[in-house]
Amino acid sequence: MTTLTQDLIQLLSLEQKDQRLFLAQSEPIFGPRIFGGQLLAQSIVSAASSTQLPLHSLHAYFLARGDALAPLVYKIEYLRDGQSFATRQVTAIQHGKRIFMAQLSYMKSEDGAEYQSAVPDALDLHPVTSLQNEQWHKQRLSHQVQSDDVPYFLKPFHVDSRPIEFALSDPDNALNSEALQPNQYAEYLKIHHPLAAQHDFVYMHQAIAAYYSDYNLYNAALKIHGLNYLSPQLTTTSLDHTLYFHHPFRVEEWMYYDMQTTCTSQSRGLTHGQMWQNGKLVCSTMQENLMRYEV
């Protein structure tokens, strides 16, 4: 029997067809639609062998809904190879159609000026050791998950164990309809087991962080308005996603993911995220999502 971490690594292990084409499998995490975090993570893995430089940023667009029950192909394009920087474009193709596109920028490691924003107060107010584990929360919310309001294809996500372990100070966020302040959405995340030596590379840690960066990011925008992804007459989807990697990190160690929405307008929400580990800001995220509410 494989572990949850091994299952995740298997999902992110692509089959190389030639220098610029990779075949990948999908997993129905949120029903029949491909989870955006899977596309982000697999794009990082697919481009990793094309350069020896470390990845520092990724800018992605979700172009069409993907089929979580079908394989897909990643096509790599070489846009730049310089002394300090390299740039790749990754396109995900499924059923003959482009569903996702990302540009990834790599830069050689350099020493330079150092600054970061203040460490969130919540790290002291809600240390991970003070929070209940994920299984406790699932047990507590089981009555909500089993209700007819939750579609059948989403029930396993809230009941079964996931490849990412969560610790939340407000576990009802995804299901309830209580409006929150813009700075009230945060969680701790990590994988269940350390990466095996053959997978313990910087790009794999970055790919896994990209995978879980998309789990709840748009919820921060919804909750300001007392909405969630189960709200009647609400259409939600991720439109684009950006990642910046600042310092190395380990995905088997707890990461504090702080999310804050800066604006919602024109049926869209813009949310920024910061991942903290050992007192360092290691990754920043940004996502714009559709939040079309039909009255």
Task: Describe the protein's architecture and organization.
It is a single chain. The chain has 295 residues and is α+β, with helices and mostly antiparallel strands. Helix content is 20%, strand content 36%. It is built from seven helices and twelve strands. It has helices spanning 4-11, 36-48, 122-125, 134-145, 155-159, 202-213, 219-224, and strands at residues 15-18, 21-24, 55-62, 72-81, 85-94, 97-107, 164-168, 185-191, 234-245, 255-265, 268-277, 280-293. It has a twelve-stranded antiparallel β-sheet with strand order 1-2-4-5-6-3-9-12-11-10-8-7. Strand 1 and strand 2 (21-24) form a beta hairpin. Helix 2 (36-48) runs antiparallel to helix 6. It is globular and about 45 Å long.
Write a brief structural summary.
Helix content is 20%, strand content 36%. It is built from seven helices and twelve strands.
